[in-house]
Amino acid sequence: MNVALRPGHEKLMAVTQQQLLFAELRDTFARRLTNHLNNVFVHQGHDQSSTLSQHTAELMLPKHSPLHRDLLRYAKLMEWLKNTHREKYEGLSRTYVDYMSRLYEREIKEFFEVAKIKMAGTTKEAKGKFATLPRKESALKQETESLHGSSGKLTGSTSSLNKLTVQGSNSRRSQSSSLLDMGNMSASDLDVADRTKFDKIFEQVLSELEPLCLAEQDFISKFFKLQQHPTVTPPLAQPETEEPDGSMPSRMAPQAEHRHSLSSEKDMVRLMMNKIFQSIETELNSLIALGDKIDSFNSLYMLVKMSHHVWTAENVDPASYLSTTLGNVLVTVKRNFDKCISGQIRQMEEVKISKKSKVGILQFVTGFEEFAELAETIFRNAERRGDLDKAYVKLIRAVFMNVEKVANESQKTPRDVVMMENFHHIFSTLSRLKISCLDVERREAKHKYTDHLQSYVINSLGQPLEKLNHFFEGVEARVAQGVREEEVSYQLAFNKQELRKVIKEYPGKEVKKGLDNLYKKVDKHLCEEESLLQVVWHSMQDEFIRQYKHFEDLIGRCYPGSGITMEFTIQDMLEYFSSIAQSH
């Protein structure tokens, strides 16, 4: 019917009759083809729903590859229909979308319903409550292993699926962030198991949706002959004609027309996919909201998993329905992650300390440690590390600020002790986890720890030799005022007799007694979990020796030839510190 006729042939009766006959045959065949495919679409829309419960119980979506395989035999005929009966072709497209959207909506709804029940650890009868219930360890292990075994399997023979399988299988395996490997988490075993279960289920959901969407999009483009990828267009052998203004037509016109056709066909694929899978984005957002409600830390898992799947989908086809939809959902996940971080900062700001007990390591300091351990495990091989680094900086600045706030408000525990213990804990955590974006904060935490350790030691040590300290402070003040060092002993308040009197007040026995009382006081100030008592005690010993040598130096310079010495030696002092530490 498309054969070019010679001039005048179209007026011949025989030609006209043949054209009418062929047109009638064409229309009849197009009608029969349309009716047959319509029946196939309608039948398919009602048939697979009977096997749905069997698939969803295992958290698996039914495969549509048998239907796709059967229908692809008609692809050439669909192309013919597209070129000859555009209205019938478009009518078939609408029918397919209508019935397949109903089928997919039922399947996806039940699939997500089962995923929610598995996440919440409830039974089928209790669905809708979504309350977290304890599960037997063996059953949980069997379930998570089952999920792990089926995770990441992408079936299908299309080009998109093969490409995704090659890119995604190994990298997804590296994304498995099982908390069962975290031996140093201080959360309960149940919390770890629940988070692991959530991680596995969420990964399984995404791994089931990926091949489903890609296979459907690939089928639509092949069956309805809608190009998704640019093809090389050969030069069209058309005679050049002049434009109305006398100019020659642009040689780019055929290519521009091809690009317009390609763009419109890609838009049609996208439109069909949006209608068929209109419930996916809503269901994913609902699942994400449930996961966030169960445990706000689940947003960390979801951010890593969703980022990885978006990255994989964009590598296959940045404009695909899957890539666009997952990208939209990723925005919600990122928002939940930011909300989780803001919630932790708000809890820090609202912390209240007891006025009757010592402060110790603040709860939000250990909370940051647990968060960092969890996050480092989850984000170990993540593509979206930048989000976590930004969150770390926000959290650690809030930790620093609120430690200082609590230290200033503390009544039972000295400010220096609160600062020293908590910044020591922070420094130890950052050193152990080696979080590169927090190197500046790690050094700052060490600086604050050492500064407040030194401050606490000096302030505490002023008490055992208080009068001696005051005496030599007076001596140094006179020297600073211009009195020569060798003439200080002629000052009434600082003569040799006054010096001997002060020294006699600190015999070795009294010094040891004073140090013993100091040890008990330090012991009351410090908390057991940070184990800084011996560190502080050793620092006090070093400071005491430094002060002792300073006093001896002043006696030698200001009271030369007097023969005045302290009533205990450095060796005596070392024995005092050692015996006191061993006796407690």
From TrEMBL:
It comes from the Eukaryota. This is Uncharacterized protein.
